[in-house]
Design a protein that fits this description.
Length: 80
C-alpha cells in the first residue's frame, strides 16, 4: 500500500502524517508512507488545499484534517 501525505509543512499536514502512521500501527497494516511537500507534485494530484491524503494513487482527502477513525476506514477500503 502506498500512502502520500500532501502538504507544505503546516501544522495540520504534520498532524495528518502523524495520525496516518498511528492508524497504520494500530491496525498492523504495512504501508509505504511518504510526505510530499513539493507544491508541483501536490498540484499534480489536483489538490489545491492541503492537507491532502492519497492512498494507492487515489485522492481521499483535500483541504481538511480527518479524524483517525476516518483514516482507518480509508485504509481498510484500500487494503482489501
Amino acid at each position: 500500500m502506498e500512502i502520500k501525505v500532501l502538504g507544505t509543512g503546516c501544522q495540520k499536514c504534520k498532524e495528518l502524517d502523524k495520525m496516518v502512521r498511528e492508524a497504520l500501527a494500530e491496525m498492523n497494516v504495512a504501508a509505504n508512507v511518504e510526505k510530499v511537500e513539493d507544491i508541483g507534485q501536490i498540484v499534480q494530484y489536483g489538490v489545491m488545499l492541503t492537507p491532502g491524503l492519497v492512498i494507492n494513487g487515489k485522492v481521499k482527502i483535500s483541504g481538511r484534517l480527518p479524524n483517525k477513525a476516518d483514516i482507518k476506514k480509508m485504509i481498510e477500503e484500500e487494503n482489501k
